Amino acid sequence: MQPLFCCETPNLVISFDQYKAIRPMPFEPVQQEKLSHGVIRQIEGLILRGILRPGERLPSERELSERMSVSRPSLREALSDLQERGLLTSKAGAGVYIADVLGSAFAPALVTLFATHDEAVFDYISFRRDMEGLAAERAARLASDTDLKVINTIFEKMETAHQKRNPADEAHLDADFHLSIIEASHNIIMLHMMRSMYELLREGVFYNRTIMFKQRTTRDTLLDQHRVINDALQNRDPEGARKAVEAHLNFVEIALSDQQKSDRNEAFAQKRLEHEAGR
Hints:
By secondary structure, the chain is mostly helical. The protein is 70% helix and 5% strand. 21% of the residues are buried.
């Protein structure tokens, strides 16, 4: 015999099954997710994690549908949605690309001020020292083995470029190395913020890194510093990794200050030469 329950209505007694039937419950029917929604979520996640980067071309429609095991109509629906939201962009006859979702961290007028005022340069290096020191510490603790392999692979490319004495390649790989550490720290806000900052660095807004890599003694020192950073990360030494990054950026700050002084001295020397020649 089922137990009886008293309801709020006076003198009403009902069975347990009746009570369950009328009691309000906070559940709703589960709807089967559309395949296109699954495609959207996957591509969004890859962009958010920095795996798919601005300007990167997606595989062809056929290849992508096969990789994701969805029909072409479902794939087209997903890509159309992502394009409408500004995450993807299509180029006639060229395919679909990841949109420039980063943009610039600063307004163009402010970027111009950065490029023409030395104090902005040194504040930028100070900001990097704080953020990248934290990123290196996090990466030593949180990076997966694969993350560390990526960092080590880039460092090995740096060694190869160093042997070839190619300053442009070294400068490019230098940025890749530091960004790989930020990626390995697994903080998506830090990742996208610093990636945007690095785009300004690549464009030479703050200073010309290629000049720094043209100097033999500086190049050797920079490579040694990157080796110390990499070793600390591979050994999963958080404090050692943070200190190595901070020491590296301290050196960059001093080297840049010395370079600026040298440039100013050379400018005055040129003026003296012109003046002497005209006497």
